[in-house]
């Protein structure tokens, strides 16, 4: 295994961010340790969609500042409502940068205010055959804020993009999505006071 200092910059950066993060939820803390091991073992391939069937992806949970609404897209391949996000591309300087880029591309809202480079969530999930050679996504979640009045624009990867109240999600979200979102909201409330509006 090569030293951390010799990892590609995005792999080194996410490893450092994961090490610095102390999740509120015990399950997240345990999974975070597995992510650190995965990045160290897979090295640069951990972030490369062509580096193997398992790799990191970046998600962005776009929320209103008061945490009352979340922006979701109806994923074309998955056929469910989910947060914005996707693969880390060669031009992305970090997993966080990939997540924010994907959010702007998929949601069509240019005026996103990123909540920084520290993750708020890790979520590993298996994928079906509709996702091609990808078999497992080691997803790292970040948060950005947008105004509730911001009008989303559908991208080529989505069938629809819309705001939903965090306590009234659509029926066709992944089974564990409501718990995942609740864990993220708890994490945000614990980290920083939330401004009204």
Write the layout of secondary structure elements.
Layout (H helix, E strand, L loop, with lengths): L8 H12 L5 H17 L11 E10 L5 E7 L5 E2 L1 E4 L7 H13 L5 E2 L6 E6 L9 E10 L12 E8 L11 H15 L6
Parallel strand pairs: 1-7
Antiparallel strand pairs: 1-2, 1-4, 2-3, 2-8, 5-7, 6-7
Helix pairs in contact: 1-2
Quick recap:
It contains four helices and eight strands, in the order ααββββαββββα.
Please explain how this structure is put together:
With 197 residues, the chain is an alpha+beta fold. Helix content is 29%, strand content 25%. The chain has helices at residues 9-20, 26-42, 95-107, 177-191, and strands at 54-63, 69-75, 81-82, 84-87, 113-114, 121-126, 136-145, 158-165. Strands 1, 2, 3, 4, 5, 6, 7 and 8 form an eight-stranded mixed sheet that branches. The longest helix is centred in the first third of the chain and has 17 residues, at 26-42. It is globular, with a radius of gyration of 16 Å. The model is unreliable at 193-197 (pLDDT under 50).
CATH C-level = Alpha Beta
Distance between the termini: 48 Å
Number of domain units:
1
β-strand number: 8
General form:
globular
* Cα-atom radius of gyration: 16 Å
Largest sheet, in brief, is:
8 strands, mixed
Q: Label the structural class.
A: alpha+beta
Number of helices: 4
CATH H level, superfamily name: Nucleoside Triphosphate Pyrophosphohydrolase
